[in-house]
Each structure stands twice: as C-alpha cells, then as structure tokens.
Amino acid sequence: MRHLLDFQDINKNRLENLIERTRSLEVKPENLDCMALLKFDEPSTRTRLSFAVAAEKLGIKTFESSDVISAKQKGEILKHEVETYVSMGIEILVLRTKENNIDDYREFEDIAVISAGFGNKSHPTQALVDISTLYSLNKINEKRTPVTYVGDVKHSRVFESGRQLLNLLGFKVGVFTDKNLLPDNKNNLEIYESWDEVFENSNAIELLRVQKERLQDNEEINFAEYINNYQLTKDVLNKSQSDMAILHPMPINIGIEISEDAIEDSKIKYKDQLSHAIPSRIVAFKYVRDEI
Ligand code: CP
User: Fold this and answer.
1) Ligand 1: residues within 6 Å at CB?
2) Which of 3, 55, 62, 230 is the 20 to 30 A CA-CA neighbour of 183?
3) Does residue 27 form part of some domain?
4) Count of domains in the chain?
5) Which range of residues forms the domain containing residue 99?
C-alpha cells in the first residue's frame, strides 16, 4: 500500500502532477467500495471536514475514531490497533496526531496511511493546499523566494511539509522569526531579519500560529515581544508590494500573528487556500489508491 506521510519518496514529476490535480481536479461522483478511518487525536476543523467531504465525493465510506475513545486508553499497541482496522476491511487510515512516530507507520503494508497533521513533522495535504494556492496566484518563480514563513516556524508541521515540497520542486523558502523559533534544520532556508527584507525578497508570506500546545516545558514565548516584532499589522502590510499575497493555514489567532485591522485586507488569501482544501484531500485519496 502507498502512504502519504510526507513527500520524501515522491519524485518531482509526480509532485508537480499532484499540485496540478489539486488546482484543476474535476470530480464525478464515484462509488469506490472503499472504507477509510478518519482518526483525529487533535482538534481540527478544515482537515477533518475536507477529508470527510472528499471521501463522500469519491464514494469512500468513512468512520471516525480517536485515541480518547479507543482501546489505546487500555494499553493497546499500534500493531494490534492497525491489524484490527485491516481485519475489518479499512483500506485507508487518515491520521492526525501529536506524536512524532511517523516512521512506525511507513512499515504497514496492508493499509494506506495519510498524514492529516503529524506531530511537528508533516502536514502534506496542507502543503498541497498552500503550494497550489501559490501557483494559482503566480507566486512560484525564480525571481524571488516563493514564500516566507513568519512566526512559530520551529513547531510547525505546515512549515515542515511546505519547505519539503518546495525544496523538492527546486525552490528555497524564507523564514522570519525569533531566533528561538527557528527550526533546527536550516538547509535551503533564507533567514530574513526584518519585514523590509521579507518584502524585498519574497513573493508571498505564510503566517503561522504560535503552536502553544507544542511548546516544551523549557520553552516560553514572550507574547508582548513577539507581537511587537512579528505581528502583521496594517502599517506593516502597507509597506509591502501591491501584489503581495498573505497566506495562513488557519486557525488564525487575531491579535497575535495578525492584527484586527489587517485581517480584512485584500492581500490576505486564506479563502484562496480554503478553495483547495477538498481537492487536495481528493488527490491524497487518489494518490494512495494508485490512481494518480
Ligand atoms: N490548517 C489546518 O490543519 O486546520 P485544522 O486544524 O482546522 O484542520
């Protein structure tokens, strides 16, 4: 079975095809006689619903579970949990988890696993949403960095999958954040020191939420300082070029990464991203079923 846990084993042609399909897919109602389990162990609005809608459009029957209501609470190991799914005919596991044991899932051969947000490691369908949006807005080119991630980059799986996809396509990504929120792996990054530098060198920005739930005990954020240095305000936005695009994977924390007066600006493109949410999950289902 194929997995979509991240992009590490997918070649450039196929990645370009997945993005093109996310941008242009037309779905006719199908009945695939396939069952998928949507297992969300962390909260989600967009990813869970768009996987459910995508499955409905493809005729895939879905079931829901989570650690809170599963026998994991009684000490069950992952192997036995997955063997149970397979025995019942579940072909696809769509998983959102706070854990970082992504490699454990690569080993399963009788079930396809799709990451719907995996620890701080991967969120490939969000990357398909984001990079497809950047292509649709003509932001992917050699002139400047296609996108600069601003905010809590260190704990962000949206950043990790976005950078992986863009790096595999041959592009660097930008980062603008506090030195304590930089990722450990700084390969293929452009690290900017000011908003002016970001605007001068980037076609687009993706704002990131502070991932409070992923801060370690020894990590603290000084929010007043963070807001002062990295919040996107109307004044900051007014300094950007007229065709600047501001992305956000959502949920948005207004008052932290963006101010109330900036959120309605025409440069804010989260609705363009939302329009790619269902196509990206359809593409994920089709990819693991070997149909793309
Ligand atoms: N972007 C994203 O993953 O949103 P949800 O947490 O609502 O699924």
Assistant:
1) 44-47, 117, 126, 249-251
2) 3
3) yes
4) 2
5) 12-123+275-288
- What does the CA dihedral 15, 16, 22, 27 come to, rounded to 10 degrees? -100
Angle in degrees, CA 69, 98, 276, rounded to 5: 100
The best mutation among 40, 47, 123 to test binding of ligand 1, ranked by most ligand atoms within 8 Å of the C-beta, falls on 47
Residues 66 and 163 in one domain: no
The answer to whether residues 116 and 40 touch, using CB atoms and an 8 Å cutoff, is yes
Pick from 39, 41, 46, 270 the residue to mutate for probing ligand 1's pocket: most ligand atoms within 8 Å of its CB: 46
Considering the domain architecture, whether residues 145 and 221 belong to the same structural domain is answered as yes
Residue 52 sits in the same domain as residue 103: yes
- Which residue, by CA, sits nearest to atom 7 of ligand 1? 45
Cα–Cα–Cα angle for 206, 185, 207, rounded to 5 degrees: 10
Q: Would you say residue 103 lies in a domain? A: yes
Asked whether residue 157 falls in the same domain as residue 257, the answer is yes
Shared domain for 116 and 54, answered yes or no, is yes
Asked if 288 contacts 4 with a C-beta cutoff of 8 angstroms, the reply is yes
CATH for 33: 3.40.50.1370
pLDDT per residue of the chain (292 residues) written in tens, 0 to 9: 899 999 999 999 999 999 999 999 877 777 778 999 999 999 999 999 999 999 999 999 999 999 988 888 889 999 999 999 999 999 999 999 999 999 999 999 999 999 999 999 999 999 999 999 999 999 999 889 999 999 999 999 999 999 999 999 999 999 999 998 999 999 999 999 999 999 999 999 999 998 777 777 677 778 789 999 999 999 999 999 999 999 999 999 999 999 999 999 999 999 999 999 999 999 999 999 999 8
